């Protein structure tokens, strides 16, 4: 006999935790399954969030998971030209961040089963039957030690990351451009004073094709550096080794001062673009749906949870009812993802010299004070400013249409 619940959430990612919490807030009975034995243990390497991203969730940043305040970011071209964007950000203790939202979900009555992996998913009798199994030696906080072998849910929300087997089992092609996932490795490092600056730095160009190399100060002698690459497979070691050597040179760090504390690898679906994110009884949110960025994934989870609770209240779990998830997500976040893809594909196809020329338009200028409005208006503002300052530079944007 299967245990019954209104909504089952698979994965304690930021999207999953928000989906579970908001479904419970909407009056649904919710169970969340996480294959890790403890939420917050060995977290995803995502390690920062900016205030603008959190604003869309309505969530206040809590100091319990912030390790260092960031005043903004500097985007650096291959030749060292910098664009400055002042925007409040935070370097995170990602494990503490996940545990913070675990507690919020528990407070709303979500039943969390850690150390539990969903290994089967089948629609049956106007619901979905999940087959579960222990994924480790035991269960972590917030869990009953007993693991049900079968769970029947009226609605399932899949939020278990970009390599989601459950989305595949549901027959959903969740990303329009799955081959465009940016694979990367993030290192936590120590060096004297390396964590003291208050601006993150993102380096673009052929040294990290398709995305970026990163430097995130984390306070004191600790920072995070990483590299994310598209179209070169999952092994980014050559790019990372090159970035480490360049970073030491840029920051004048000797070999004996440089220490690697931790190494994490993962994928970022920044330009994958969500595709099929729902069907009868099922929705997919977060990385599993190609929804990149902590704040954006959290908001997608909120929407999925709210739509799931609405479906439970109506007693209708059909794709037609759940399509509200897709329409609400598109009205809120699609433009951010679409413009991001255009921008990053343009950069990927440009030569380093072209990127340098483009960046010279805003050399050492704080563009955050010049660009206003929503994403569409911001994009138009950038084009307008580029045309005013250097009309020839806008021609570089035609790189988007190159066959590369």
UniProtKB/TrEMBL annotation:
Any Pfam family matching the protein: FAD_binding_3
Source organism superkingdom: Archaea
Regions crossing the membrane: none
GO MF: FAD binding
FAD-binding domain location: 4-209
Protein name: FAD-binding domain-containing protein
Protein species of origin: Methanimicrococcus hongohii
